[in-house]
Amino acid sequence: MPLIICSECNKEISDSADRCPQCGAKTPLLLKRESSKATRKLTILIVIGIVFAVFIGRVLYVKKQERDWIESGGAAAAQEALESIQDSVRQMENVRRRECESSGGRWSHAQLECRQ
Question: Which of 12, 30, 53, 71 could lock 18 by a disulfide, CB 3.0 to 4.6 Å apart?
Answer without folding.
Answer: 30
